[in-house]
Amino acid sequence: MYKEKSNLKSFQVFATFGLIPLLVFGIVVLIPFFSGLFLSLTNWNGSLDSKIEFIGIGNYISAVRDPAFWGSLGKTFYYVFFVMILTNTSAFLFGLLVTSGMKGQNFYRAGYFTPNLIGGVILGYIWQFIFSRVFVYFGTKTGIPFFEISWLTQPHAALWALIIVGVWQNAGYMMLIYIAGFVGIDKSLIEAARMGPAPFRCFRK
């Protein structure tokens, strides 16, 4: 009797903390994923009145043959590469800065992490104002041609605008990971490495 109650209680705990998240994950992630995968193999305009025609990998073949696809793929790799490099570099430097014993380091930690908490819509409005208004005003007053035209109206500059926003938003989260690593290192080891013949080795060891 006691064993049955224990098993029932264990199942209730599992149902609360296991089944419900799995159910939400299935509804929010798995069902849309497999639905999208199926629809990618069909010719359908999205209207409920239209017929769904199965065409196999026809859509993928059309995409591969389209030069715009390869252009978009190249820009995506370009974006990912620079966001990854600049995010980790800035996060490493900020993490090193706020763990160096400087005054007000908790304030700076919160300030660097705040962009990660801002919603996408608000973030978009903020940076749209910066690129379309602030930069243009700055360029007009200083006479710098690069800033006189909104970055969002120039293809190459718009890509770098996205990179800047991506780095600005994600660097705070990565900074916390680096801080966790820096805090776990014995300070005496860092001091010994800095006083040695090759102080920069403390960043690699």
From TrEMBL:
An annotated GO cellular component: plasma membrane
Spans through the membrane: 12-34, 77-97, 117-138, 158-185
Keywords of this entry: Cell membrane, Membrane, Transmembrane, Transmembrane helix, Transport
Bilayer topology term: Multi-pass membrane protein
GO biological process: transmembrane transport
InterPro entries: ABC_transporter_permease, MetI-like, MetI-like_sf
Domain ABC transmembrane type-1: 73-205
PANTHER family: ABC TRANSPORTER PERMEASE PROTEIN, INNER MEMBRANE ABC TRANSPORTER PERMEASE PROTEIN YCJO
Protein name listed in UniProt: Binding-protein-dependent transport system inner membrane component
